[in-house]
């Protein structure tokens, strides 16, 4: 499981976050996206080193970048308060999702430093801290970002307004509830898993029904279709695991979850979604006068 988790996290650090930053704000976050690999590389390297001082220092370099990214969230919030535009106020669902995406990597970076130092932050086992790192790269950053993008595009589609708002609110909300569940109990985490699963399934439905048909080429359509289909399966696994943890029913092991839920979300959902949205962004730029 360790090797697989490290590979998934490396993908999140080196590609997912900088690609996502370009989708959030191609101009304002352009420099951050360009220099991100310089800070992500030490973070990726530290994953493969034994726990200790060297790994901790490298992890701290990456954590500093995630905290700097999180610091952009309040600045973005203040900017929207000062110069609000239609549909993009500070409490607009798509904006809430984007703010969540900016903050989520800092949770992963903090957990990484603690895990590499061998420190049980808040009393959590090191294995839980290690799994927090991919969770907040993908369920935190990528899922919230994609939910926000989907909401922006489908907010005015007939019959999709309520669903798109639900997706944009429930993905950040579910992620936060899952995080709080770590501190409370398995039942609280199950509530978070239910909310997050509902939000992700809404993202999948909107992607399949509203966004995929508008793709101008088969590759983009296939990427969108794959991301939507994978979400249905991987989030069902997440729900099964959370239910099993809360009720002691038979459920997948963490190793099996990493190989199915984790890998599926990283490659089938996150990677396919970002590639598809990048292509959709280029298409819109090409048709804009």
Automatic annotation (TrEMBL):
A Pfam family per the record: YndJ
InterPro entries: YndJ-like
Keywords noted in UniProt: Membrane, Transmembrane, Transmembrane helix
Transmembrane segments: 6-24, 56-75, 96-114, 134-154, 166-184, 190-208, 220-242, 254-277
Domain of life: Bacteria
Protein name, per record: YndJ family protein
């Amino acid at each position: 499981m360790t090797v697989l988790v490290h590979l998934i996290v490396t993908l999140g650090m080196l590609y997912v976050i900088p690609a996502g930053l370009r989708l959030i704000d191609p101009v304002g976050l352009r420099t951050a996206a360009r220099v991100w690999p310089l800070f992500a590389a030490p973070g990726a390297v530290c994953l493969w080193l034994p726990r200790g001082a060297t790994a901790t220092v490298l992890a701290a370099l990456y954590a500093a970048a995630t905290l700097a990214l999180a610091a952009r969230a309040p600045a973005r919030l203040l900017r929207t308060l000062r110069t609000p535009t239609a549909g993009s106020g500070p409490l607009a669902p798509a904006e809430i999702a984007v703010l969540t995406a900016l903050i989520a990597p800092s949770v992963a970076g903090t957990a990484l430093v603690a895990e590499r130092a061998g420190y049980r932050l808040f009393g959590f086992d090191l294995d839980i801290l290690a799994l927090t790192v991919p969770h907040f790269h993908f369920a935190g950053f990528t899922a919230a970002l994609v939910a926000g993008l989907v909401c922006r595009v489908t907010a005015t589609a007939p019959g999709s307004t309520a669903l798109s708002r639900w997706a944009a609110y429930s993905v950040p909300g579910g992620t936060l509830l899952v995080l709080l569940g770590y501190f409370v109990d398995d039942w609280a985490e199950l509530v978070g898993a239910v909310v997050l699963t509902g939000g992700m399934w809404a993202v999948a439905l909107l992607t399949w029904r509203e966004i995929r048909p508008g793709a101008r080429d088969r590759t983009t359509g296939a990427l969108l279709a794959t991301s939507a289909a994978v979400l249905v399966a991987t989030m069902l696994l997440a729900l099964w695991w959370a239910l099993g943890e809360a009720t002691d029913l038979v459920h997948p092991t963490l190793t099996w979850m990493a190989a199915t839920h984790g890998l599926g979300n990283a490659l089938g959902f996150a990677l396919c979604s970002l590639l598809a949205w990048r292509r959709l962004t280029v298409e819109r730029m090409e048709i804009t006068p």
